[in-house]
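User:
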Amino acid sequence: MTTTYAALLRGINVGGNKKLPMAELRTVIEGLGHRDVRTYLQSGNAVFTSDSDDEQAVAGALEKAIADRFGFTVDCLVRGGTYLRRVADACPFPAASLEAKQLHVTYFSEQVGPERFAEIDQAAYLPEEFRLGERALYLYAPDGLGRSKLAEALSRRRPLKGIVATTRNWNTVTKLVELTGA
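Assistant: Predicted structure:
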């Protein structure tokens, strides 16, 4: 059985750190035996097909291949198109009426519960809001992510300790759904 996946790499090509050219990323993914490899933007989004049905194994092999080739470690989440579609469809905010820069999804390496964020007083950050989903967090930031005080609070090490988290804006969320054919 063939699965179409999106690889979501965390923290590459940001501020001159962890430079990873997309053409080389495609070569690395192809070298792992995956097919139909495409990248989206320069921020670490790749879509490909694979005969593996094990997201974690695919992610682990990709992390190792990147470290071997480029000499630095990169956290990587691999998610199937069906999952990406479910996350997009479950958005608790009115995505169609918002600007893409106002809505973000943070994908997590595992399911997280509200207890991780219990110390965050959501009312103190209004009109910014967040909601948890399936291995994901939806963030509404009306002034954008760069100005969001709530995003800053959510990204602190304590709530995210022990998990991999990587954020994409709504344009990227929907584009990855489209590219995975979900």
